[in-house]
Amino acid sequence: MANRVMHFEIQADNIDRAKKFYERTFGWSIEKMMSADEGGMDYWGLKTGPDGTPGINGGMYQRTPDRKLSTYECTITVEDLDAAIGAVKNNGGTIHQEKMEIKDVGLFAVCMDTEGNTFGLMQPMNWKPR
Fold first, then answer.
1. I want to staple 120 with a disulfide (CB 3.0 to 4.6 A). Which of 8, 17, 75, 97 is the partner?
2. Contact 60, 21 (CB under 8 A)
3. Quick one: DSSP state of residue 63?
4. Within 13 A of 10's CA, how many CA atoms are on the CB side?
5. 17 C-beta neighbours (distance < 10 Å), count
6. What is the Cα 89 distance to its own chain's centre?
7. Is the dihedral of CA 4, 59, 53, 77 positive or negative?
8. Which of 44, 20, 42 is nearest to 31 (CA)?
């Protein structure tokens, strides 16, 4: 089990805007976990699904000029790619690569959130995560 991705982070220029995007688009639960007022940094936890199901949770923090990272692209599993693409567009995101089929895997699209972060959407067909 070594070397598996166990957490992801999203940088945001506008936390409220990013929070609304991910809550409305994917139904994620987002709550502040740490505060700069308490000696740490402002940090929000991202719960992407129920405990005990495949997938990982992540975090979000304010993008700063000295730490403006290139993104580490993650792919989000969706049940209906067309509906997910619609939700991305309806909530201020954009589509960078329209829906395509990856043979023996599923339907895939590349999107950008309201903060300029790129992510993939995958509707699995024959493929199952191990």
1. 75
2. no
3. -
4. 30
5. 14
6. 15
7. negative
8. 44
